[in-house]
Amino acid sequence: VIELRPGTQDILQRVEEVTGVPVEVTADSTQSTLARITRARGGAHSHLLRVNPTLGEPDYLITYECGFILRLYETPSEDRREFAGTAQGRDEIERLVRRSGQLAQVSEAAKQQLAQQLLDGLLTQLRSYPIGMRIDRVIHETSPDLEPQQRSAVAHQQKENQSVLRPEIKSFAPKPVYDANVSMNAAYAIFCDRLFGKMGYTIPFRSAGFEKQGRVLMDLLQSTPDDPAFDQSLVDSWADILGLAGWYQWVPLQS
Amino acid sequence: VLDPQSMAFEIGFEDFDLDLLPSNARHIGSNEFRTAVDTYYQQEFSELGGVVSVDFAPDRILVTWKSDDAETDLYEQAIGFLQRGDLRSAVPPLRALVAVEPNNTDAHYNLGMAFSDLGEFDTAQLHLLKVIHREPENVNALVALGVALYRAGNPTAARRRLEQALDLDSGNGYAHRNLAAILGNTGEPNRAIEHLRHAHRLLPDDQAAAFGLAHALDEFGEEGDLSEADKLYTATIALNPHTEIAELARQARSRIAQKHLHTAGEVRLDAVMYCLGALERFAQLGPADVQAIGFEVAKLGQTGIDVNNAAITYTLRSLPGEYTGLHLMSMMYVAFKQTAPHVDIGFDLAQEYASALELYEVRSHQS
Questions:
Q1: Please, which pLDDT band fits residue B51 given cuts at 50, 70 and 90?
Q2: Which of A21, B6, B40, B184 could form a disulfide with A40 if both were Cys (CB 3.0 to 4.6 A apart)?
Q3: Which alpha helices (H) appear in chain A, and where do they start and end?
Q4: Measured between CB atoms, does B81 come within 8 Å of chain A?
Q5: Which of B151, B185, B149 shows the shortest CA–CA distance to B164?
Q6: How many CB pairs under 8 A join A and B?
Q7: Which of A163, A170, A207 lies closest to B17 in CB terms?
Q8: Per-residue b/e over B173-193, b at no fewer than 16 CB within 10 Å?
Q9: Which of B91, B94, B44 has the alpha carbon at shortest distance from B73?
Q10: Which of B235, B246, B260, B231 is closest to B326 using CA atoms?
Q11: C-beta of residue B166 within 8 angstroms of C-beta of residue B176
């Protein structure tokens, strides 16, 4: 049984109210991300929110993940769209992986697997980072009791993001994919430094030459209205800068 | 829970933004480059306070920062890296630690060990000497210093440190083991064997000690010592079959087996018959089946096949029946000759195989 703070239970209640379906929270230490919410589809009786218990108390992670569903339902129903990969994105990344000199000796099956992993990771990052920053800011401003958990989750994510700078990781990712990934990491580092005051998170990305690109993405975040109705346009503007337009599409929400 | 007040990251030399450095420090990897990179990170983190450590591996920069009130213990962080075998990552937190605690002998000791394993012997010696200057009776540090000195090509000084360690603690198996390595390489094999016996007795689960004694007996011992060496090689493999040492032990066992096999210098008729049987049997099979048999015996051989004891038999998944070790090795020899003739299986049955081929051709003509 996962014990939750009253504020977290309120959030879960709000998701149920706006979507008509409850959220089922489970602890899953095997998943690679800290938390992941799967919206109820095809008549499923609940949204499924898997939380990795590595970080201890899950209230911040639950609040953060629920934020995506709440923002989606705060947009007019006719504008609600889901983010989905496209064949163009898949073809493009497979082409990049095949062209990579570093991967010349790798089997075709392994190349396809790597391409899929890179695509999934990049699109998840594109969909979640800009909107997630909106959610993070709201949590920071409205739920000071969650700040220690939030700081800890951010530290965890920053550590993961910094590890991408290791030469061996850089060596196997095609350059456009790597640059897009690290640019978003840089933006997230700048965001976190601004959110918590200087934490030094930007330093690794600045020294790797990605601060400028991170600031461009942050400028887009700031110049886009906060209203959830602009979330799709925010993601699109990041995709344009990162060269990922056409790698995904917005499809009508399926219930 | 992760502590947001510490950070460790690595960045390739090639990936550092050279525009951040003075123009005279942009030659990647140069001393000026390293100094400027160090200064850059010190300045970047200065606003945050705390301790920054910048280290350089052959292809990358390693940066560690810890705030003054960080909860994460640098020493524990480093030990975590060491336990995972990530020596390079353990260095920055240890360096940061000794920067603020210059008399922390545990940190110096672990730095010395890490640098020694990373091949940076001079730096290793400096840290280990700091430990010994503060704690002259620190046996582990003396042993580590002995090892670093030996690796640096100074056997005389290494021997002195290891003997010093044994004077303080004659029950230190690592001191015995490492001293034996020096003695074995400097013309004192009997004394080496003596120390290795101590080491193996004191460290029965230490693969290097078991292998060292086996190898010394095999190399320097008398004829009668070969059987003990073979037993010790077997024990070495049993301790962990997947290491490089285990592989060396397997090769050594194979050599010993052959030595026994061809002691009289004669062709082994039993092996000739086994090879002949294999030639006949394989003639009924396709190359894939023959290859499968060869590979299965080779795999079985990784855990050791006794070719000199006909009382021990083995079974195969790919071929029904029970086989002695020599029978299996004969089959493997023939299988590899037919499917991968360029591969050296490490077991010489060339004469037996040649005789078997002659017999096989005669029989083929007759039938």
A1: confident
A2: A21
A3: 6-19, 59-73, 87-99, 108-142, 147-163, 167-172, 175-196, 202-207, 211-223, 231-242
A4: no
A5: B149
A6: 76
A7: A207
A8: bbbbbbbbbbbbeeebbeebb
A9: B94
A10: B260
A11: yes
Residue that the structure tokens 């086989």 belong to: B323
Q: Does pLDDT of B22 surpass 70?
A: yes
Cβ-in-10-Å burial (0-12, 13-18, 19+) of B155 comes to middle
ipTM of the assembly?
A: 0.91
Token pair listed for B130: 């700091």
Q: Which strand ranges, in their side-by-side order, compose the sheet holding B51-56? A: B6-12, B60-66, B51-56
Span B130-156, mean pLDDT?
95
State the pTM of this model. Answer: 0.58
Whether residue B4 and residue A155 make contact (CB cut-off 8 A), yes or no, is yes
- Select from A59, A207, A211, A213 the residue whose CB has the most chain B CBs within 10 Å, as the one to mutate to test that interface: A207
CB distance A129 to A184 below 8 Å: yes
d(Cα A37, Cα A51) in Å, to the nearest integer?
Answer: 9
Residue A89 three-state SS: helix
Catalogue the long-range contacts made by A12-15 (C-beta closer than 8 Å, 24 or more residues apart): A12/A62, A12/A66, A14/A66, A14/A70, A15/A47, A15/A66, A15/A69, A15/A70
Q: What is the rounded distance in angstroms from the CA atom of residue A105 to the CA atom of residue A172?
A: 12
Torsion (CA) B299, B302, B307, B313 in degrees, nearest 10: -60
DSSP B224: T
Calculate the alpha carbon distances from B137 to B130, B140, B143 in Å.
12, 9, 11
d(CA B76, CA B251): 40
Distance of CA B203 to CAs B166, B195, B213, B249, B309, Å? 15, 12, 12, 18, 30
Is the pLDDT at A141 greater than 70? The verdict is: yes
Select from B138, B150, B139 the least CA-distant residue to B181: B150
Within an 8 Å CB–CB cutoff, is residue A95 touching chain B?
A: no
Radius of gyration of chain A (CA): 18
Q: Which amino acid is at B22?
A: P
Q: Which residues, at least 6 apart from B303, have a Cβ–Cβ distance to it below 8 Å? A: B237, B241
- How many angstroms separate the CA atoms of A227 and B151, rounded? 65
DSSP state of B285: S
Instruction: Name the 3-class secondary structure at B348.
Output: coil
Q: How far is B151 from chain A (nearest CA, A)?
A: 28
Residues B298, B303, B307, B312, CA torsion sign:
negative
- B87: tokens are 């020596």
Interchain proximity A200–B45, CB inside 8 Å: yes
Residue B265, classed as helix, strand or coil, is coil
In angstroms, what is the C-alpha Rg of chain B?
A: 28
Q: How far is Cα B335 from Cα B292, in angstroms, rounded to an integer?
A: 9
Residue A213's contacts (CB-CB under 8 Å, 6 or more residues apart) are: A179, A183, A186, A187, A241
**Residue B334 CA from chain centroid, whole number:** 32
